[in-house]
Predict the structure of DUF559 domain-containing protein.
Amino acid sequence: MRQVVGAERGRMGRVVGMSSYQIPSQSPSLEELARRQQNVVTASQLRASGVPTRVVSGHCREGGPWQRLLPRVYLLQEGEPTPEQRMWAALLYAAQNGREEGRRDGAVITGAAALALYGFSSAPRLPAVTGVEVLVPRQRRLKDAGEVRIRRTERELVARSVHGLACAPVARAVADTLREWTDAGVFDTGEVPTRQLRAVLREALAKTEPGCTLKELLAELREAGLLGEERVRAAVDELLAAERESVLGRIGDLVDEWLLPAPLAGPELRMPGGTFVAVPDLYWPAAGVAVEVDSELRCVSEGEAAWVRGGQHRMEYLGVRVVYVSGARLAAEPDAVGGELREAFLAGGTDVVELMVAGHG
């Protein structure tokens, strides 16, 4: 049989959505598989291509042209595998058919390996990644092997294609990376400085392709139980404060552009008897109008979110007109938001109960 070597290297294409990686149900030629998977194939793929087990064993003996990278995963060439080939081996190992069941189960690369594939400058480069975390459905009977660490999940696997490899979405990959670092104690040893933690979070939001939203990132960090970790929570609070300041700054620019008077920033509103009402982001006392930006920019826990919502409901009950502004809409439609602010200011509140602004009489 002709030896298959020198498969084409995958090039970084655009990141696209895809389901978790599943070994193709059809039987492409061995040459096509080698080209598609950078010379990395599974035992079942070799068998489906008509390669006898004894031939595989012979080719993988010392000095042979092939090598076994992981259980039932082979590299059809000599020499050290490239970082990309290591990723393919990990993914194929986790996605290959079960021996008895004959099922095809999905798998996606996550954690630091996924961030490296996404091209994160704040995370270790692909050659430096020494472990590959792969997400699989919880029911899979699969063990860690070599540098592959299996992470089971009850959630539906969702993936992005990078270099043809199935990677977890950015927010999930970031959360799994931080979980990995936290469990390994690298923050305590100083192996990973906290500034790198902050840089990873900022880069996840700054990336336009693929990137993630703040809401998605917070949801994954919360799901991973990371918001209770002191260093992670501090980094998240810092990130939220910066995002919040940016949004409020853009609203301030709109206030100037639409020739509105300057509102009070973060005043504490109380009833004349001293009962606490709320702390809106911005407030025009004379008009009885408040502005509230994305709640996720100030609320990490459900308790904090409930506290903010309570204040918003009390303001509305007392007649204050509350304008809700999202950072995403502010960026996409600044003129529309500016018009809404002006319209709300001119309309004012409705039968507003007299409120006192703490520190302002």
Remarks:
- The first strand starts at residue 16 and ends at 19.
- Residues 16-177 form one domain.
- Residues 1-14, 98-104 have pLDDT under 50 and may be disordered.
